[in-house]
Amino acid sequence: AMTHHHNFVVADTPYSRLCSNKSILTVNGQFPGPTIYVTEGDTIVIDVINRARQNITIHWHGVKQPRYPWSDGPEYITQCPIQPGSTFNQRIVLSDEIGTLWWHAHSDWSRATVHGALIVYPRKKNDYPFPIPHAEIPIILGEWWKSDIQAVLNEFLQNGGDPNNSDAFLINGQPGDLYPCSRQDTFKLSVDYGKRYLIRMVNAVMNNIMFFRIANHNITVVGSDGAYTKQLNSDYITISPGQTIDFLFVANQPPSRYYMASHVYASAGIFDNTTTTAILQYTGNYTLSSSPMLPTLPDFNDTLASTNFTGRLRSLANKKHPIDVPLNVSTKFLFTLSINLQPCVNSNCSGPFGDRLLASVNNISFTQPRIAILQAYYDRISGVYGDDFPRRPPFRFNYTADIIPRTLWRAGNGTEVRVLRYNSTVEIVFQGTNTVAGIDHPMHLHGQSFYVVGWGFGNFDKDRDPLSYNLVDPPYQNTIAVPRNGWTAIRFRANNPGVWLMHCHLDRHLSWGMDMVFITRNGRTADAKMMPPPRDFPRC
Ligand code: C2O
Ligand code: CU
After folding, report:
1. Which terminal Cβ of the chain has fewer Cβ within 10 Å, N or C?
2. Which stretches are annotated as coiled coil (predicted)?
3. CB of 509 closer than 6 A to ligand 1?
């Protein structure tokens, strides 16, 4: 295995989109940030150098960081932010990850512009469980705000309502030619007739699950979240913020130019009908008959189009790529995911009824501590967090009813963790609720991938629903969209000692408190214990 060294210089950089200029936070001046290429099992050593005027941390999304939570990155969970003028030397050790993952800032909303792809090749070149592509192309879905992103964050936290939408979605940093001033720079992918291509897609959008489609071309999904999947044929994909999807397509249509397009899937609330586009163009000589046609994407509120795609993902689960789904479970949780309301202290807030919007897991809205939980755990500093995060919600009620008693719209606040024994086998059932609004929540767990063993609409039935779990080839993900007013069951083995954040990857929900923390204890043997912190670890 190799060690790759990189510098990540974080700095404010002038960029221009949608006919106007602004300064955005970037890594090495690039937006989207640099793509990092490694091979299975390699190590990445990164000097994160903060030359910006604000705090930063970098998270390696989907990298398990075995026994080494020190480089995981979420601010005030595993570390304090890297302050302006300082450097943090992060060591990222890969284990079973393969395919596409990504890295992003994990401090306030800076991930809006501070993100990039991480591509993990198999040990033997082209040793893919699918036909070898002629070329591989990363595609990052992102967003552009005309205003300053920190200002957007501060504004909605202060006024208590929904955040402003971005001004455009982006494909590889470009809004596409449906927007003014963008035609020149629209992302274009040149293909040769008859050849096969692998797209490595990352959804780096802040607050939306996205649909994506290439006009006239079918696709075959072969991987997601840093693991291979069984081949899945489709004409569109659904991708959650945080999720990655690898898919193949063959350039087998009459040589021409075709649109690739993406727009929002919004089960509730914020809908933005803008479509971002890129262009697939065949090489060679041909005459363009007309301008390219936009592909038909599913409707913005088409929940079935979203769940049908996500629910068909399967692990390869063969000899060469076996799965390890726990068949017996030692630790079971039922976690409700809710949007909540809280009275505004001083003035009227712009949430429903003049209240402030919050979000919670098991009715606890997470409060960020002032000392990172990992530091407090390791150094035995008391008073930073509590360790009785509830195993199940405090009330039993019809979670997905249309009318839910307003008393249940309130949530408590707290910094509570749940401690897991080393090697315990864990099942979490996420129950979506209809308090205030029912919406899909893409839940993401740090430090582990998990098997998605079941999902459904309505209230989870603990006697009936487990009978239909898929324990044969469940997909191995790090982010899974819990369907609107439905539930999703995941399983994993807690064999990675450390402090691991779990949260909704819609950033407004994360900012509202839809997060909680697991502490996985050390095992007995030396190779089952957390490693010590690096010397330059950013303490609080
Ligand atoms: Cu993509 Cu907590 O992260
Ligand atoms: Cu959410």
Report:
1. N
2. none
3. no
Which residue CA neighbors atom 3 of ligand 1 most closely?
A: 61
10 Å Cβ neighbour count for 478?
26
Nearest ligand to residue 442 Cα: 2
Report, in angstroms and rounded to the nearest whole number, the Rg of the chain calculated over CA atoms: 22
Going from the Cα of 479 to the center of ligand 1, the distance in angstroms, rounded, reads: 9
Determine the pLDDT at residue 406.
Answer: 77
Average pLDDT on 418-424 reads 98
pLDDT in tens, 120-173: 999 999 999 999 999 999 999 999 999 999 999 999 999 999 998 999 999 999
Ligand 1 atom nearest residue 62's Cα: 1
Which residues are CB-neighbours of 419 under 8 A, at least 6 positions away? Answer: 387, 518, 519, 521
One DSSP character per residue, 63-104 reads ---TT-GGGS--BTTTBPPBPTT-EEEEEEE-SS--EEEEEE
The per-residue pLDDT for 226 is 98
**Spatial separation of the C-alpha atoms in residues 21 and 14, rounded to whole Å:** 7
pLDDT band at 392 (very low <50, low <70, confident <90, very high): very high
Query: May I ask the CATH class of domain 331-528?
Result: mainly beta
**Model confidence over 209-243: pLDDT tens digits?**
999 999 999 999 999 999 999 999 999 999 999 99
Does this chain's domain 1-127 share its CATH topology with 331-528? yes
Q: How far is the CA of 505 from the centre of ligand 1 (A)?
A: 6
74 ligand 1 Cβ < 6 A? yes
For residue 465, the 8-state DSSP code is G
* 106 CB near ligand 1 (under 6 Å): yes
Superfamily, domain 1-127: Cupredoxins -  blue copper proteins (2.60.40.420)
Ligand 2 mean position, distance from CA 135 (Å): 35
Give distance in angstroms: CA of 216 to centre of ligand 1.
Answer: 34
Measured from the Cα of 111, ligand 1's closest atom is 1
**What contacts 247, CB < 8 A, 6 or more positions away?**
198, 199, 201, 219, 220, 221, 222, 237
Q: Does pTM top 0.95 for this prediction?
A: yes
CATH code of the region 130-315: 2.60.40.420
The domains of the chain are located at: 1-127, 130-315, 331-528
Q: Which residues of 489-528 are buried (b: 16+ CB within 10 A; e: fewer)?
A: bbbbbbbbbbbbbbbbbbbbbbbbbbbbbbbbbebeeeeb
Look at residues 153, 188, 156, 195 and name the one whose alpha carbon lies nearest to residue 174.
188
Using a 6 Å cutoff on CB, does residue 175 contact ligand 1? no
> Given CA atoms 146, 150, 153, 156 in this order, what sign does their dihedral have?
negative
Of 42, 44, 58, 43, the residue nearest 10 (C-alpha): 58
How many Cα atoms within 13 Å fall on the side-chain side of residue 277? Answer: 24
The answer to whether 466 and 501 have CB atoms below 8 angstroms apart is no
Q: How far is ligand 2, taken at its centre, from the CA of residue 208, in Å? A: 10
The number of C-alpha atoms within 13 Å of 315 and in the hemisphere containing its C-beta is: 25
Counting from 1 in the atom list of ligand 1, the atom nearest the Cα of 510 is: 2
SS3 248: strand
DSSP annotation of 173 reads T
The ligand 1 atom at the shortest distance from the C-alpha of residue 73 is 2
